[in-house]
Automatic annotation (TrEMBL), chain A:
Belongs to the ABC transporter superfamily. It comes from the Bacteria. PROSITE patterns: ABC_TRANSPORTER_2. The keyword Zinc-finger does not apply. Keywords: ATP-binding, Nucleotide-binding, Transport. Signal peptide: none annotated. This is NitT/TauT family transport system ATP-binding protein. The keyword RNA-binding does not apply.
Automatic annotation (TrEMBL), chain B:
This is NitT/TauT family transport system permease protein. It holds the Pfam family BPD_transp_1. It comes from Panacagrimonas perspica. InterPro entries: MetI-like (IPR000515), MetI-like_sf (IPR035906). The keyword Transmembrane helix applies. It is a multi-pass membrane protein.
Amino acid sequence: MSISVEIKDIVQEYPKPDGKGVTRVCDKISLAFDEPGINMLLGPSGCGKSTILRMMGGVRPIGVPTPTSGTVLIDGKPCDGAHDDAAMVFQRYSNRPDLTVRENVAFPFRMKLWKKKVPKAESEKRITDILAAVGLADKHDLLPAQLSGGQNQRVALARALVLRPRILLMDEPFSALDAQIRQEMQALLVKLYEMQPCLIVFVTHDVTEALTLGDRVITLSTQPARVADDFRITEPRPRSAIWARSTEAVKMEERILNILHAANPGRGELTVTV
Amino acid sequence: MSDDRSLWNPYTPLSPGLRRGLGIGSVLLVLGIWAVAAALALVGPNKLPAPWKVAEAFVYLAWDAENQRSLLLTATMWSVGRILSAFVLTLLIGIPIGVIMGASPRINAVLSPLIDPFRSAPVVALLPIMVMWFGIGESMKVVFLFIGAVVYLIPMVRDAMQAVPQSHWIAARDLGATPWESVRLAVLPMAMPRIADGVIVATSVMWTYITVAEYVNAREGLGQLIQNARRFSAMDQVFAGIIVIIALALITYQLMQMIKRKLFPWETQQ
């Protein structure tokens, strides 16, 4: 599978609440992704990571021109609106509370776009397969209220992956979960990625999560966000707890923390989970 | 005293038994005061009939053995029939308009100045106009009920749509829905419980307007029954009629609440 996503000189400004002047959230950010892989976008909360993710997804709900300047290219073509190459998973999963697990995963196939693209038999098979892959086959007829937070996020993940997206955009998807559930979900994501490799851009403020999952870790500074660091991790996944304590991993962690401290002393919160 | 038992704790859980007991108690107390006032003739019987007189009137209205008929049943059937017709009309027209207003700020900006003011306008004052337009027959009554209810329903449906968090609309857009599909598949289903609340309120409004609708040239109906009794100064029958309307409105309300809970069991669990 080939895929290329390039963002060039992205600047994003929002008007200040008092109407005087603007706040620059992203300052000339350029990034290129040209192969399947898990790319971690790391930075303190509110640094503009989600804004960048949204631009790649194409859906721009905010009443402000997005981006202020710069371009997003997908396979070399400018992307200026919703497109069907990308699916998104948010921290707040938005499963329909009135639909069962299976119906929620089948939800996109109620839309004209996917009805036309994927024949019924094919979509039914995909739904069954992905439900098994995320471990919800036996819970297919439960309602979201009967599931835990982690299970709900599995539904949201399945609902995105059932579309076989070439780009999967994840906006702090596991940060509301308990530490143990978060680790389970990280392991699940690695498994799903091996089954169905695609270009994943994963926004997080958790250094440990970035090191556990990423093929590449991009660190952003805050307000305005700039690319402060960008490196690759070659250690194969799943990465063990032993690797997490290795000199290599600890050095990476220190490197990230140092860069962030230098870029914005005393600002933003960044977490390290053990 | 523990906070649990403090009178001024809005979060105290009340056992169903206690709640029912207090409710029945307060109704009985008022009935008692009413009975005493009537028995001691503190208020003239032509102003306040005794509760037992009202009960007698109720029995008579429910079954008039002499003429082998139930005035109450006939009147109720007519009133319920009118409300049902207006209900169907209100739903068919009110919900789609409220939905598109809630889904589009532009459509809302166009329609809300035409609809919202009527929420606080005395719809009763429109009655003469309705009579001019629709005559004094059945259609006038149904249209009057419809107007009275729909001006409440439409803004409530609109508000229900607007109360759905934007994240649902965005999530559907991200998955490939068109903007209208996002409204239909993500926002509308989330708004349904609150839309149902609007339908329940609109129905209650119709029960309050039914008597007004039936004041004008009605041959049948609960409003007419009350109006007729008043003409003959049968205050006991007036009271009985009012109590029947209140009871029917309460039953409708409870029934609709029950249906709502059945339809949207997930609402309270969000």
